[in-house]
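This part of the workshop introduces the protein records we will be handling. A record pairs a protein's sequence with a compact description of its fold. As an example, a complete record with its sequence and its structure tokens follows.

_____
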Amino acid sequence: MITRGQGEDRDSTPDTVNRVGAVWADRIAAGGALMPAHTSTAVELLPAKADRMKRELIQRYQGQTLADVYGVARTPTAEGLCPTIEFTSDLPVRILDGATAHHLLRHDLELVAGIGPYWAERHRQAGCRTLEGLIGSRFWPSASAILTDLDQNPAATFFQVRQRHGPSHPALWWTTGLFRPEDLLFLDLETLGLWGASVILVGVAEATPTGVKVTQYIAETVDDEPALIVALTSHLAGKAALVTFNGRSFDWPMIRARAAYYGIPFPYTDRPHYDVLHFARRAWQLPNYQAATIEASLLGVERADDLPGSYVPEFYETYRRRGNIGPLVYILEHNRQDLLGLVGMCGQLTVEWGNGDAD
């Protein structure tokens, strides 16, 4: 893990994070055809690895502040100023184009209530292959409503597809093409534990004309958590859909619960939410579905200096106790890599499922 230090160009991004983003971009541009170059590394017990990394980080960043390492802004909120860091990557946000999404979804007869796999196949054998082909049948009112939503209401189409197919079906991924890339917000939290624990970092990524921009809202102390939550709510206001990794089970309920704890309005409960963990389990046969395992399996990129998220509370407490930003820098880099990995996985799903052949 290499980060920017004093005297370095603040428009550059960490070398490790850049490398992962570049490999994802190359793989997606090649149509997912790159062969993973698996590497083997010496096994180091996690507690010993964590202690070693903390010592090295504390030594490397002794006497520095976050402003020495990053371009830190202070985002004003109703709960005070929230430290904020931004960086950009040329990794593209790759989702289906609108024409492809419409084509695939128009051919999905099973979106219509009352048509399951058997009757969909019977209709296809009879020459009815699209929703428009149901004109004049008893299924037409339902099919007509779906077609209207396809043209006018992407969110309604998302919820219809999820109801008919479930949260991991390729057809649900096709609905990303009904949105513009800039309408999606990629989200990843770092917390001090499970339910009821404080959120100490919120990272979001969004599409730009040249790649992706990552914004991180930081709680330098746990007292900064309300400002962090308000900053996120402002960011959510302009987005139509959410993309996370295991976010439906953890990140989204967690941030809603913390907002409720502080009495912060959070009116964002009914938007489409793509949880990539569900799609990953369907798309790829892997030993496990941690983000780092997916990177290693699909890209051949191993996170040599990375730890499970369960070590974030320990690193944050060391940062607070020692007054040394080194462990906090690690948390920031871990979050950034998770966000770029999330964007990369989405691109890979689009490459693999964009032709409609996925089961």
About this structure: The radius of gyration is 22 Å. The chain has 14 helices and seven strands. Strands lie at 72-77, 80-89, 184-191, 199-208, 211-218, 241-244, 273-275.
